[in-house]
Write a structure and sequence with these properties.
407 residues; alpha+beta; two-stranded parallel sheet; 9 helices; 6 strands; 13% strand
């Protein structure tokens, strides 16, 4: 019984839940996890540079000549080196100091990953506007369906009155037929409404990459413009600047001295003593330092190039902020316009209701025909429909305003 109850329960959905589903399920959103996995492997590779490197080397050679003393010593016999020589070694190198280059590259990789993930967020963000459109379209269709059903019920009640009037000869039989024809027209409109509703639900399901029931109950969005928002593009610009700063840090560290410890152990003929013609074991340990003290202003030029790249990012940010400001003003103007229109809708509906009351009385007294009555009834419901359209347009403009503001 529990599972039957759950399966029959009507699905409810908010616009915020749709946003979350897009961020989670849309194919592009999968890149976030892939980028993080890629960064983890690359960071692991960078940190392995701190570990010692161990190499095994072996060689066997034959050479046409070997080193010999240019003089002969009395009573001393010096055997020449073999022309075939053999050597096997194990080489170990350990980084001791490189100016923090590894840690700096790890930090750069972290920032680069954040930049790439934020770019994904920027690419996903416009989908919220599409969610707004389909979500509000479904709500409008629901409102329109309620008006159509209300109109159908009102005509149904009027048919009962007309049947009585026709029975007693107060109205012609064609009066009832006119109303019946109007019911058929409403049925057509309801069918069209249902299919449009299904189409918009399917589009919303495709955007969110989830299953949404056709009889889902959409919760009207709660508009709260008091919160402080932040567009993902602005976050991206800040991260790009951090990436440039970190790149400059690496360039600065590249000119610091690098210190390595090394060791070599081997076995060969000859060994380290070139004059001893036999197989010997040997080893060698030591320190090695590299320091590029002059790079022909290469570092300076690289930093200047990064400074220009930072100016480019600043220019892109300024351009975005200018367009953003224009979008905010446009949507604010649109909201004010629709609010004024809705005020007129209220007055129009009130007048139409009064006119319909008069028409209803005239129809009962045989002053007008049912066709005349239907004209006034249709105009009233057209006014109510326009009001619902404008109210939905206002809600859509307000949720789009939130998206533009990054709320």
């Amino acid at each position: 019984m529990f599972f039957i109850t759950m399966s029959n329960a009507q699905q409810k959905l908010t616009i915020e839940e749709c946003y979350a589903l897009v961020d989670k399920n849309y194919p592009l959103a999968k890149q976030n996890e892939l980028l993080q996995q890629k960064a983890n492997y690359e960071t692991e590779v960078l940190n392995k540079a701190k570990l010692p490197t161990i190499g095994l080397n072996a060689q066997a050679t034959y050479q046409s000549a070997v080193t010999q003393l240019p003089i002969s010593l009395p009573n001393v016999t010096i055997n020449p080196l073999n022309k075939d020589q053999y050597r096997a070694t194990v080489d170990v190198n350990q980084l001791l100091y490189n100016g923090g280059m590894i840690d700096a590259n790890v930090q750069l990789k972290e920032v680069q990953t954040k930049v790439q993930q934020q770019q994904v967020a920027v690419n996903l963000y416009p989908l919220k506007s599409k969610v707004n459109y389909y979500f509000m379209s479904v709500l409008l269709l629901q409102d329109q369906k309620e008006l159509l059903l209300s109109k159908k019920n009102q005509i149904g009640e009027k048919i009962k009155e007309v049947k009585t009037a026709v029975k007693y000869g107060a109205l012609l039989p064609s009066s009832e037929q006119t109303l019946e024809a109007e019911l058929l027209k409403i049925d057509q409109q309801l069918i069209e409404n249902d299919f449009q509703h299904i189409e918009n639900i399917q589009n919303l399901a495709s955007l969110t990459s989830t299953s949404i029931s056709n009889n889902v109950e959409l919760t009207r969005p709660i508009i709260d413009n008091s919160k402080n928002g932040n567009r993902p593009e602005l976050v991206l610009f800040d991260l790009q600047q951090q990436q440039i700063d970190q790149s400059k840090t690496i360039i600065s560290k590249s000119n610091l001295p690098k210190l390595n410890a090394f060791g070599q152990a081997g076995y060969g003929n000859p060994g380290l003593n070139m004059l001893e013609n036999s197989f010997q074991s040997f080893y060698m340990v030591g320190l090695k330092m590299n320091w590029n003290v002059f790079d022909w202003n290469k570092t300076k030029a690289e930093k200047q190039a990064l400074d220009i790249a930072k100016e480019v990012v600043n220019s892109e940010k300024e351009t975005f902020e200018l367009n953003y400001s224009m979008q905010v003003k446009e949507i604010e103007t649109q909201i004010n316009k629709i609010e004024k229109i809705i005020e007129i809708d209220e007055n129009s509906i009130t007048l139409r209701e009064e006119i319909l009351k008069v028409s209803d009385s005239q129809l009962k007294n045989g002053v007008i025909t049912t066709s005349d009555y239907l004209v006034e009834l249709t105009q009233l419901y057209d006014a109510k429909t326009n009001q619902k359209v404008h109210q939905t347009q206002l809600e859509l403009a307000k949720v789009n305003y939130q998206i533009i503001k990054g709320l």
